[in-house]
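Researcher: I'd like a structural prediction for the single chain below. Treat it as a standalone chain; there are no partners to consider.
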Amino acid sequence: MGFEQRQQQVQKLAPRMIQSMEILQLPLLALQERVEQEMNENPLLEVQDDDPQLPDDPEETYENPDAPTESERELVVDNDHDNQDDFERLLNMKNELPNTFDEPFRKSSNQMQEEGDRRHDLMANAEAHPESLNDFLLHQLAELDIDTDVELMAERIISTLDARDGGYLRTPLSDLLPSNHTPEDLELAKRALAVVQSLEPTGIAARDLSECLLLQLSDKDPYYEEMKTLITGHLEDIAGNRLPAIQRKTGYSLDKIQKVKDELHSLNPKPGAAFMETYVPTVTPDVIVEQDDEGQYKVRLDDDRVPTLFISEYYRQRLQDPSATTEEREYIKQKINGAQWLIDSIEQRRSTLTKVSQAIVDHQKAFLDLGPEAIEPLKMQQIADRVGVHVTTVSRAVDDKWIQTARGILPLKRFFVGGTQTEDGDDVAWDTIRIKLQEVIDNEDKSKPLSDEDIVKELKKHGMTVARRTVTKYRKKMGIPSSRQRRDWMLENK
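Model: Treating it as a single chain, here is the predicted structure.
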């Protein structure tokens, strides 16, 4: 067994740096929650309604984002000396704020009123819980005059239906019955299923797509018999747009098949999906971009709802009070340290997010001026180099953050896109290529739609060199069917 000496560089992050990165990554609403949590846990933290250091003139609040700020200077982490430098700096702050604290921290009446108003608004604005698919069916079932045993079985069937699956019955009827069930029990289950399938929405509790569509047919529908024929024997051909194959098998004309196909498309293949609870997250922009008088885009943080924090004067004075016990002084030191770390981390977040956002906006000015088709390729490393931070800092800064622009509220990550080069050597974003791809398909001859290889050639005419597999990938992502499925057989016969 031998020994080998190896020199290795290992990066260790101080607790303060870890917290700073965590705070940077938080979106606005999460940051508000974090501040409230810290205030509940740390009695030394106070909210400063009016910052005495801010000038009265709002125009004087502009800061040069390139200038170093107090929060950006290197912080002292000296565990061997109880962070003495930090505490001396904090103790010297005693004259900066009015001495209004003559008792330990407690929430002011204004704070309690604001907290009560916030809770009231949350309750008042809470959306009513939408009616589920199961409840909707059970309410209809309760209005029917049917035998109790049939009703109970129908309730059991309804309990298995899932709106996320379109409301299909995926469980065999025999599995809903006792293991020793009789033929009579199975017949009762079939009667109960017929009852459930008679409810709204039409097509509910179907066991497959064919049954779902058949349940939605009416003998009053035009092409009723033809629709039944296509549903029961030609759904795969319909999905593949193989109309000539259907013509050979049924003897129907292409014109009739196309009309029947159009009627089938009016049916709902997932009738229960309308009852899915769709969660739409509340989007609160962290950054707002506006144009100044010279047409330049400037960013500002929309973090007015994040309170300005400071450390309680009472506890700073208590730390110097000779009557304070050792345990009390240690407790205050610990809480002061945590409070200052939080304050510095929030200030660092403001500075970093402002610089990163401004760099992104400067790079994507054409996007803001002209729209999505003008977006330029951009990598996070480019912004990191421009701002002078590590690429992981940029990643954390833009993660789950939104920016309000004249073109809507967009995620900051929206501005980072890959790309390729044109034949002239100009950079072009993949978003631009996708827009052009859609334009090419929209303008194609539907009687002879373009194959993916043909689309490659069309893009090349516009100076965009793209591989066929890339075209196929983006076409599928955009939900565009293949050339065979896009073919309009009626145009070919005109």
